[in-house]
Specification:
This protein is mostly helical. It is 82% helix and 0% strand. It is built from 4 helices and no strands. It starts with a helix and ends with a helix.
């Protein structure tokens, strides 16, 4: 598992790459940002997953839909955050189940 800071940094880097490469195609960029959030959320802590989701939402709303860094909060951008929140909850459940198994074994 990757720590919160490193997971957030990895998510931000992935979000920047997706925004730079797919910024001209909003739907494709949104799908790729969801992939970034899902992958990073699987490997990081819950706070790292939430930070990744917020960062990707900000990048999407500021540079894909918005122009010149002005944040535009529309429904597709909020969908990225909602999907990321769901993934964060699954990461939380994964953390909880592993701690329950560890405590039962020890």
């Amino acid at each position: 598992m990757v720590g919160t800071v490193h997971g957030s940094a990895l998510g931000f880097a992935g979000g920047v790459v997706v925004t730079a490469l797919a910024g001209g195609w909003p739907v494709f960029a949104l799908l790729l940002l969801v992939v970034v959030v899902v992958v990073v959320s699987w490997w990081t802590t819950v706070p790292g997953a939430v930070l990744t989701a917020v960062q990707c939402w900000g990048l999407y709303g500021s540079f894909v839909i918005g122009h010149e860094g002005q944040l535009v909060a529309d429904w597709p951008a909020l969908a990225v955050l909602a999907v990321a929140a769901t993934v964060s909850l699954s990461a939380f459940a994964r953390d909880r189940s592993s701690s329950i198994v560890d405590s039962a074994a020890g």
